[in-house]
Design brief:
Blueprint lengths: L5 H13 L8 E2 L6 H11 L3 H16 L21 E2 L13 H10 L1 H8 L2 E6 L2 E7 L1 H5 L3 E4 H7 L1 H7 L10 H9 L4 E5 L9 E6 L6 E2 L2 E6 L4 E9 L7 E3 L2 E6 L4 E10 L3 E11 L4 E10 L2 E4 L2 E4 L5 E11 L3 E4 L2 E4 L5 E11 L3 E10 L7 E10 L5 E10 L5 E9 L3 H9 L4 H17 L4 H15 L5
Parallel strand pairs: 3-7, 6-9, 7-10, 8-11, 9-12, 10-13, 11-14, 12-14, 13-15, 14-16, 14-17, 15-18, 16-19, 17-20, 18-21, 19-22, 20-22, 21-23, 22-24, 23-25
Antiparallel strand pairs: 1-2, 3-4, 5-6
Helix pairs in contact: 2-3, 3-9, 7-8, 10-11, 11-12
Length: 469
Amino acid sequence: MAKATIKQLNDAYASKFGFAMPEKSVVSFDFGLSSEIIAAISDHKQEPEWMRTFRQRSLQTFVKMPLPKWGPSLAEIDFEQIRYYIKDTEVEQRSWDEVPTEIKQTFDRLGVPQAEREFLAGVKAQYNSEVAYSSLQKELDEQGVIFCSMEEALQKHADLFQEYFGKLVPASDNKFAALNSAAWSGGSFVYIPKNTHVKRPLQSYFRINAARMGQFERTLIIADEGSSAHYVEGCTAPVYSEYSLHAAVVEVFVKRNARFRYTTIQNWSGNIYNLVTKRAQVLADGVMEWVDGNLGAKTTMKYPSCYLAEEGAYGEMLSVAYAKNQQIQDTGAKMIHLAPNTASKIVAKSVSVAGGQSNYRGLVHVTKAATNSKSKVECDALILDGQSGTSTYPDMRILGENAIVEHEASVSEIEEDKLFYLMSRGLDKTEAMTLLVAGFIEPIVKELPLEYAVELNRLIELEMEGSVG
């Protein structure tokens, strides 16, 4: 088979992910953020009074809070030049045939219906500000599993929703959590009943189609005692000359003896500011696993965290970040040990090429109450040229007695002898380096479902083309 050219690979990448559909919104508010815009969002969604109040108070918090003084610069963001709500369909559809043509064509090209048919337990597909399509296998519905949009949960599962919403990530947590709390729209609500095991992944797919818009989905997950499930989210956007903003909030509650895995494959285009707050609370003998694949975006700031709140809780973060063309991947994790005999593990790998900057920024906090706790952090960075960079910012706060905490970090280049060996076997330089990068990130990729592992490796291959040599 003839080898594809760089242009052919880049064209294939743009065709699958970087395309844009014509805007045909049914509801769209003007640029800018105000109490009137927030009230209009509430009116359109017919929200209860407590949520209206929550949004307005969050807006006041957002206005008062400064931008972060640490990390990558966010000075370019003009909050008055962003659209905070765009809705492209009147009704969240349960049948794929009833989804509006432009949205259906978008998700068909991204492979969402095909993935649902082949290996998913349920799907949520969000287009701009609202979920456009949702499904759940009949047997899960009969078991009491809830997998719906946040809007539907607010209306149909009001007590459960209000009990957990905003309890892990309050609006005051940071400026972008406050912005999300004020302007949130869409996202997934998941409830796994006691002792229920969901064997196939639940998936949400988030697509930004419009230029200069903000997507502020909110995800709320409750894994009840003894349950287990795997949730996967994917993210893409078209390539525009103007930036857009993605500021999501994720809250996960892992009850006693429950196990939950949250996997993200982020492939935003290079004009997106991706500023996300993700947090999990883990109770006795519970297990929370974050698996993160970060490609694309102009700037990413994301540090999923686990609050290990009761004895025996375990938290794990596996992440890979790929930065090129002046992209900044500022990623990491936070493990907060609050109880005795808790344990955590962070494995972070990054690749920097063609002027990209990858940063690991993490926190391990073992409180006085967290005696006999253990934590291990591994940070490995691969730099492929002299124009790229990487930095590590570990923060260790160890107060508990008999704690065992390990931290190791490495920065390396491609080993010339390995590169020479592969090229001597007939591979060109780009193919050889791509193969070595695939081996470097393999410990993360092997934790993904097969279909996602194949997709991530393919994305890395496409990213490498044109960046090496």
